[in-house]
Amino acid sequence: MMTQGEMEAAVCEGISRFEQEYMGRGPKEVRCFLIDDLLLVRLQGVLTAAEQHLVQTMAPERGRDLLKDVRTQLIEIARPTLESLIETITGAKTISLHHDISTIHGEEVIMFALGSVPVVRPSLNKTR
Question: Which terminus of the chain has a lower count of CB atoms within 10 Å, N or C?
Fold first, then answer.
């Protein structure tokens, strides 16, 4: 059994590896927050050079919408992989997955609503 911090770190590592293998580029930074039955993953620095170029050279709305559509489709296709990853780490099934990306800041958020609150081992060092 993991502490909450260990569980969050394992999710960060798994999501980072997923981004590297599936999207072709890992994030510069990943943070994960487990809040009861809600798991929030915040990735920074996720845009590839091609995506940055697309957003900068097209009309702002067109480039943004195109990039968001493509990223959303990729996440939807990979949903079973992501849900399996989260269930393996937390022991809880995913009820829903929500995703968004900022084309301005290159930040992505993925939120998992879980079917139950993951069981964690109490931490000896309570910093939160």
Answer: C
Residue 19 contacts residue 27 (beta carbons within 8 Å): yes
The secondary structure of 9-48 as a DSSP string is: HHHHHHHHHHIIIIISS--SEEEEEEETTEEEEEEES---
Is the alpha carbon torsion for 127, 87, 82, 17 positive or negative?
positive
Q: Does residue 39 contact residue 30 with C-beta atoms inside 8 Å?
A: no
AA letter at 43: L
> What is the domain count for the chain?
1
Residue 60 covered by a domain: yes
pLDDT band of residue 57 (cuts 50, 70, 90) is confident
Reduce the DSSP state of residue 109 to 3 states and report it. Answer: strand
Range of the domain at 39: 12-114
Residue 125 lies in a domain: no
Is 126 within the bounds of a domain? Answer: no
- Please indicate, yes or no, if residue 99 is contained in any of the structural domains: yes
pTM of the model: 0.89
